[in-house]
Amino acid sequence: xxxxxxxxxxxxxxxxxxxxxxxxxxxxxxxxxxxxxxxxxxxxxxxxxxxxxxxxxxxxxxxxxxxxxxxxxxxxxxxxxxxxxxxxxxxxxxxxxxxxxxxxxxxxxxxxxxxxxxxxxxxxxxxxxxxxxxxxxxxxxxxxxxxxxxxxxxxxxxxxxxxxxxxxxxxxxxxxxxxxxxxxxxxxxxxxxxxxxxxxxxxxxxxxxxxxxxxxxxxxxxxxxxxxxxxxxxxxxxxxxxxxxxxxxxxxxxxxxxxxxxxxxxxxxxxxxxxxxxxxxxxxxxxxxxxxxxxxxxxxxxxxxxxxxxxxxxxxxxxxxxxxxxxxxxxxxxxxxxxxxxxxxxxxxxxxxxxxxxxxxxxxxxxxxxxxxxxxxxxxxxxxxxxxxxxxxxxxxxxxxxxxxxxxxxxxxxxxxxxxxxxxxxxxxxxxxxxxxxxxxxxxxxxxxxxxxxxxxxxxxxxxx
Length: 465
Prior knowledge:
By secondary structure, the chain is α/β, with parallel strands linked by helices. It has 15 helices and 14 strands. It folds into 2 domains: 12-80 and 314-437, Aspartate Aminotransferase, domain 1; 82-312 and 446-460, Aspartate Aminotransferase, domain 2. 38% of the residues lie in helices and 14% in strands. 48% of the residues are buried.
């Protein structure tokens, strides 16, 4: 990408006669809300993309943007990475889909084996990270002959696992605050013998990448060991955040690891890595048996793309990418300090997240305040209209295709956003200040203190409901 020293607008998609506007109107006639995945939602509608190369996205109206999202961290090498495109093109001519084994699923599993903190792991492939999580939960239920699953409030595990009591489809999900060892201990003490597994993302994106504390990780380990529950580490996004993933960084040895995103080189994929002794659950003689199918599981195209992507992303390459992410985050935080802005940017490996406060939330529950989300969306919307793509949640990542010019321009664009904030009317500036300075809103019970009311009764009542 050509070095940019001045802010530029990328707003042609908002013009009355734009192609993006026409496509959004057409999509609204065929798709609910005009989209088919929540991650594409933008206000008033998203720009439609036409092409991409490296770290550059080009929309149908001709505007170019620096991509710092890379399809939510699936494209570790950026767009059009020649080893991936070449391997997939060759494979497409040879074998695109078949209901038989092939060598590529074995090769990809071998590459993944050294990237998970499971001794001599076995793998099952799926078509998405969401499916990998569901398969892991089914495996835990079959292996333990139990039904209860501990999940943590407002942590995202795909489209089908609840993140709040409102979304819980059954009483089999026990929701507990993240980073709250005392409350987790209450859940174990009241329901431990019926818990099949604890499902945890140890560095949740919805918590601004606020990692699990050592005390919380230890309580998970002890509770699972004490009651024979399986530990499922959701590393679909965070496996690239540390060598061996976040579970290894937290000193945990999970029974099952869920993988996805970048391991498929940009193509649809998911996987679970499991302890070798759990493999019997898939066998035809096991009762109850875990029958796991899927037309596109382990398809040759995704396997081939994953092999090519991982072959070019070894420890040295990952370390370089992490260092580049650390450097740009340090520059952004320095910018916020110079401008006196109540913002910060946090990172985990080569992942990063903007946060409109100077201190991290203790848990995703503290990050879900609607005004916080609106403040972050205001920043991401400004960036979208000025040549940079991050998620509306403030999440982003680097890829090996990211150039220094992209990062320099990001800083220019964020600086311009801060300038725009100073031009708001005084009442609006005060509102933003209050959101930033007092992120938790009304006083709340500290996360490690006993709770009262409905949540307390659910935490201590048998069954957790």
